[in-house]
Design brief:
With 374 residues, this protein is mainly alpha-helical. It contains 15 helices and 8 strands. Helix content is 41%, strand content 8%.
């Protein structure tokens, strides 16, 4: 739905837009008009083609979007075969309430943090700080929930997940300091993530979880909420949880997490029909970067912190590579969670890199087989 967007008259003379062609300006205006309050919009070239000059089509629309990305006016990423754009708000003139207020579409994915920081850095001409990234895209740091649940219920969920694992749950009291602690953690994570963290701490057979449960030199346990929800370490711990959860998925006969469904690609949200995609698989940018690093390192492997520098959700990218046939194992586990991953069948997955070099960037690929962006 196209919405009324408030722009200053100076927008037409802004240094960041003055060099754009008329078509590029029209495309940018259209994307701004369909973006939500957080500047998130799905890029669909079928909607952009009518904005192009007579005789041009989807390739010209793709070229316009790519130029806007090159100018640092938007950032692109791909989720479930769909391309999304994050627009940096140049001005804050849009009303936050009333008829002209833009809605927040919580079903749209938040832009990756590294994309936000890179785009801000391009506009600022320097390295953007995390604080600037949070102000520009609070959803990327989990500061805006995907929905609007009752905070009290979220606090109770996290509390019950922890209390239920205590030797004397009836003696545990949800005092105000504990509520404040959980509430602060919910500013960085969802209730589901914190509940999974409790499950990881008490059930996972992982070095960090065992350490918390007393398998350390001091024989001390670190299972109190004050330790588990330490804000400075919460993001890293949630990465460990996500990695652990990915190992719980049953493996199929073909050695992948998807089993016999590995040949199928879901082309819509959960619950929609899955169809066979006969085309060769293509690598996303982050997965391709990881695969190259695995091949360069060989038997020495790649550590967790190196993978996290490529993608915050590195375990998801590893799952993608495994689904494409890469045999990636954890060759060394460490108590601090900085494990070592190793690729065992480099010669069998070289074709994935060769293929990705020959095809269009997956962020601007068309899942229907046409030229352009979905």
């Amino acid at each position: 739905m196209v919405r009324d967007t408030v722009l200053r008259a100076a927008w037409w003379a802004d240094a960041r837009t003055v060099g754009l062609s008329p078509e590029q300006r029209v495309v940018l205006l259209y994307l701004q008009a369909v973006a939500d309050r957080d500047g998130i919009v799905q890029v669909d070239t079928t909607q952009l083609v009518p904005l192009m000059s007579h005789g041009t089509g989807r390739l010209q629309a793709v070229a316009c979007v790519r130029e806007l990305e090159r100018y640092g006016l938007l950032g692109l990423w791909c989720v479930d075969g769909r391309t999304w754009a994050w627009l940096v708000r140049q001005h804050d003139d849009q009303p936050s309430s009333g008829a002209l207020a833009l809605p927040r579409c919580t079903d749209r994915p938040a832009p990756p943090r590294e994309l936000v920081l890179a785009l801000l850095g391009q506009q600022l001409g320097r390295v953007a700080t995390t604080a600037e990234g949070k102000r520009a895209s609070p959803r990327s740091w989990g500061l805006v929930r995907q929905s609007a649940p009752d905070p009290a219920k979220d606090i109770e969920r996290v509390w019950d997940a922890w209390r239920g694992r205590q030797a004397r749950p009836g003696a545990c009291v949800l005092a105000e300091p504990v509520q404040r602690q959980i509430r602060a953690a919910l500013q960085q994570a969802t209730a589901d993530q914190l509940v999974q963290l409790m499950q990881f701490a008490y059930e996972a057979d992982e070095p960090a979880a065992r350490f918390w449960r007393g398998q350390n030199d001091q024989r001390r346990t670190y299972l109190g909420l004050d330790n588990l929800l330490r804000l400075g370490k919460l993001a890293d711990r949630l990465q460990l949880v996500e990695q652990w959860l990915s190992t719980l998925k049953p493996a199929g006969d073909d050695g992948t997490d998807l089993g016999p469904l590995a040949a199928y690609r879901r082309r819509g949200p959960a619950g929609t029909q899955t169809t066979f995609d006969p085309r060769p698989a293509r690598l996303a940018t982050q997965a391709g970067t990881m695969l190259r690093l695995f091949m360069q390192r060989g038997e020495s492997g790649v550590r967790t912190h190196e993978l996290a520098e490529i993608a915050l959700k590195y375990s998801s990218r590893i799952s993608e590579l495994r689904g494409l046939g890469a045999d990636i194992i954890v060759s060394e586990r460490n108590e601090d969670g900085d494990n070592v991953y190793q690729l065992l069948n480099a010669q069998h997955v070289q074709h994935l890199l060769d293929l990705s070099e020959q095809q269009m960037d997956v962020l601007l690929s068309d899942t229907d087989g046409n030229d352009g962006v979905d």
